[in-house]
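LOG
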Amino acid sequence: MNDYLSVETPEQININYQIAGIGSRFFAALLDTLLLGIIVIIGTYVNDNFIAELGAFFGNWLGAIGGIVVFAIFWGYFMIFEITTNGQSPGKLALGLRVIKEGGYPISFADSAIRNLMRIVDFLPFCYGTGLLVMLLNRNWQRLGDLAAGTLVVKTTRTKMKNMRGNVNQNSLPINVATQEMMYSSWIKPMLVTEHEWNLILDYFHRHAELTAIRRLELSRTIGKPIAEKMEGKGSINYHKFLMEVYTLKASEGNKVLQVSSEQEEPLNSPR
């Protein structure tokens, strides 16, 4: 079985992901199941009390609506969290795991819907028996839902990116970064940026002039979204500009000299 998966982007940047195995995924699923069970128990209790307190007519109507809500929460739990938290349910977050597309990009609503609808089949005949068997036979530890949606579960704490064109001393090269107006500085915490994340940001800015606007948007989101989430970022985020501000604030801590240029920022002002 492969422990790592290497994905090369069109910009010849090689992103290495450590694939999550059965053990870590089992404990993540166990935590999610416990939390989901608590939610369902509380929802069912509240729902039953509505029926008892409001009488036969209103109680039955609200009870039916409550039952639908509980059902929706039960089946939508993983989908909701995967879409709103960039591929991480509470259990995955606790174990340092994330769901991504096979190409290394964040999953979409359709991807999450497919992989979680297939969870029913993976669970058969009981306790994810089918899913476990498929994972054992699959080199990337994918269950049926992952194969159908084209997704992977990876470890977020051990990924790294390296330049396929050769090793470069990133700190020795000039980087053109423009930050005329700080939009996110109120919540950016430069001290939270790890050395690995800092190297990704440097590599991105050494290359961003060569990228198309679409590829710049995709790559800046891939690098910036986990950092923004860690900093508890607020509102809609232009990840290219966010990385510019992170670079400026982080670089200023080390008294690095910045070169100012604004040409590359304009194509990303609209997409968020």
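LOG (cont.) second protein
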Amino acid sequence: MKTHIAASAFAVLTSAAFAQDVSETIPDAVSKVSPALSAYTTDTIIGNEWTNEAMSPRDRALVTFAALMTRHETENLDSYVTLALDAGVTPAELSETITHLAFYTGLGNATAAAQAAAPVFDARGVTPDSLPGAEVEFLPLNQEAEDAREELVSGLYSDVSIGVVDNTREILFRDLWLRPDLEPRDRSLVTVAALIAAGQPEQMTFHLNRAMDNGLTQEEAGAMLSHLAFYAGWPKVFSAMPVAKEVFESRAE
């Protein structure tokens, strides 16, 4: 069902109207100061990358928002909030993405992203009581996977910082990751995007494997790397490429 929805959304969102939405994320100053960059943006990024069917516009918008939030690029972030909403990301999903990435990119980045999103939410009539609160009915816990993760982390680091070990277990994997208003696949998607954008590929192995366990395909993961090259920079993506290659090869065995 999700595949059908994504395909239908792509047919709608690669229209001229959506291309215009993406174009509106680019400030007028770009064409005034760097005509060459303006041309690359229009022809390559908007005209080619955003319309590549290897990843849906909805996922591209969510990944881009996650990357820019991670990089604290907040000056124009409201336009990407608008883009994500127009691409089919729900207000609840954006709210949960901000909450989730607070733990992976830092509270300051999440606070700044909330400040950028607030005027857009206000303009669209999105109220706090329509968004996920602190108390939710958690998704089921994969006990076997959690036990394996806990054994590894506890075994390695309980004598370094028991606080980190305990909070990782209780706040992240028995709370945050079980919140239902952002699908596990999408939590993994924004987490991997954030790790790439932050230049932390050493953390990717676990999370990319988890993303693929949660339904992200290898084609989509490869498309995410290609997309993020434009928003996080080629060096960060090339630092992530060996990790992705290793994960893909290990899963093919």
